[in-house]
Design brief:
The chain is an alpha/beta fold. Helices cover 40% and strands 19% of the residues. It has 11 helices and 14 strands. The strands form 2 sheets. It has a 7-stranded mixed beta sheet, with helices on both faces. Strands 2-4-3-5-6-7-13 form a 7-stranded mixed beta sheet, sandwiched between helices. Strand 8, helix 6 and strand 9 form a beta-alpha-beta unit. Helix 9 packs antiparallel against helix 11.
């Protein structure tokens, strides 16, 4: 099995967009200006995070609360998120929603926020241990991975191919990516060290890295025929490499996770991405803002895990694997 590094591409912890992107969403005239909450996402280049921010801004306006938003520059920009988190604590945000770029590296700063009386909800990506935050609102990432794994093995059997699997993962230390990876293996029915897995690579959920890593894999394993991708940005990059290499997509199974409109309309509908597990970032943002607004106005502090839903999207159904068609995906996708 071949593994590929992304050290040459990775940039150091970065400045935050638009001067911390500390944007203050306006309240309704009859809102409570004393209630301020924050949202920290991972970046603004991926429409997933943009959708989450925009939904939070709309919900904050509907709820009549002030919203601070901040982000880093990538899915692994820990330093950027730390700077935003510290700024939001200083700005006296009563609650913070955060999609952590690391499941462990942010824990001291999160604990400092909670020690200061801030309610913290993790969105999308869990922290470890889970009790380091008040609550966690997200996709069941293992279930998402399991769905695409079940689909991939069923399609490989249908095509009559001996699986040679490439796994395009996220990055070390990010639980959401690790859970999707584990779910895919469970759904496919193979262990971590199964010889069917011929290559693994980290993409940081980035399209450019997805293309580069897929290109590197194809040079060493041109007969790869099952490709798992941790998100659709990586999948779209991998698809570019597959097309460039002249791979027969009809004899290749490419699966992913996200549910963005760009991939569903531009690749799943055409059958180039065979199936994707749709997430609902709007649900995470909407329910997170509502939960914090209610708690800061005297309601119960949110606790535990809220499953915000997942659906497999494909027009090429696999026997025994529950799925929705592309029309459903188009109606419910996010982004442009």
């Amino acid at each position: 099995m071949t593994s590929f590094s992304n050290k040459s591409w990775r940039r150091a912890g970065t400045v935050l967009l638009a001067g911390l992107l500390l944007t203050l969403a306006a309240c309704d005239d009859d809102g409570d200006d004393d209630v301020t909450i924050g949202l920290i996402t991972k970046q603004e280049m991926n429409p997933y995070w943009v959708t989450m921010r925009r939904t939070a801004e709309k919900t904050a306006k509907d709820e009549g609360v002030a919203l601070l938003t901040g982000t880093g520059e990538s899915d692994v920009d820990v330093d950027g998120q730390l700077a935003v988190l510290e700024t939001m604590i200083a700005a006296r945000a009563g609650g913070i929603l955060i999609a952590p770029t690391s499941s462990t590296a942010l824990l001291p700063a999160i604990q400092a926020a909670r020690d200061a009386g801030v309610i913290v909800i993790a969105l999308d990506t869990p922290v470890s241990p889970p009790e380091a935050v008040d609550a966690y609102f997200a996709t069941d990432n293992e279930a998402a991975g399991r769905l695409v794994g079940q689909y991939a093995v069923a399609k490989a059997e249908e095509l009559g191919i001996m699986p040679k699997i490439a796994m395009l993962d996220l990055a070390p230390g990010i639980s959401s990516g690790e859970e999707r990876h584990a779910g895919f293996l469970a759904g496919f029915g193979i262990p971590e060290d199964d010889p069917a897995i011929v290559a693994r690579a980290d993409t940081e959920g980035h399209r450019t890295l997805g293309r580069e890593r897929m290109d590197e894999i194809l040079r060493q394993h041109p007969d790869v025929n099952v490709i798992y991708t941790v998100n659709e940005q990586a999948a779209l990059g991998a698809l570019e490499a597959l097309k460039q290499a002249g791979v027969n997509l009809r004899r290749t199974v490419l699966v992913s996770i996200d549910g963005g409109c760009a991939a569903i309309k531009g690749a799943v509908r055409q059958g180039e991405i065979d199936a994707t597990a749709m997430q609902f970032p709007e649900n995470m943002a909407r329910e997170g803002v509502r939960a914090l607004a209610a708690a800061l106005r005297g309601g119960d502090t949110p606790t535990g895990y809220l499953d915000t839903g997942v659906r497999l999207i494909t027009d090429d159904k696999a026997p025994g694997v529950p799925s929705e068609d592309v029309a459903y995906g188009v109606r419910n996708c996010w982004g442009e």
